[in-house]
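Figure 2 data, in text form.
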Amino acid sequence: MTLAQHLLELRRRLMIAAIALVVGMIIAFIITGPVIELLTEPIRMVADNRGDNLAQLNFDTVTAPFDMRMRIAFAIGLLLSAPVWLWQLWAFLMPGLTRKEIRYTVGFMAAAVPLFFAGTVVGWFVLPHMVEIMATFAPEGTAQFYTASYYYDFVFKLLLVIGVSFVLPVFLVALNLAGVITGRGILKGWRAAVLIATLFAAVATPAADVVSMLLLGGILIVLFFAAAGVSMLFDRRRGRLQKDLLSEADA
């Protein structure tokens, strides 16, 4: 294909992906009400603990309620339309990949996507504890009104960061497959990995919520050692293949 044909193909696939995203957003917009109910459950828990109505979600502008629904619709629509736009991206790139690269890419996606969603689930369980514990530091006699835009950004970034952190071990395995680093090389950095995982968990969770910090840090450490173990298995397999090839060459 010529460059112009590639650009036309890219435009066509982007249009299909955009249409799928819009359809997903329309579907998601219909269910934003129940989603907001779920997102604000930690705030209601804070209000129950206080025994008053001075802990609520606050919309500080005229358009804030609509803006929040649109942002939620975009995030959920992106997830709902993911099979379509991921396929369009894959179909555009696949003709330029070798069979080995296709196999590695499929394996990477098959591991990365479930881990990302597992990370968001962990983040979702950590969220209420974070909100509740942070609320305990409010002085007595004060109100806690959570600005809608800030609260949504806080929840979205928390889920996104923890989700991405769960995918990082897959990148280590990908680097191993690319020959950039060995499994033993990954394992040698276990002290730094434990320290980084602990610091990340401490930053991502409130200082007073030790249980959430240990849970998140422990999962990240387990994933790191799992990535090191898988990489060492790949190294051993490559070593056997190279030995067999040398033996055939000598014969």
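Caption note: The mean pLDDT is 82.
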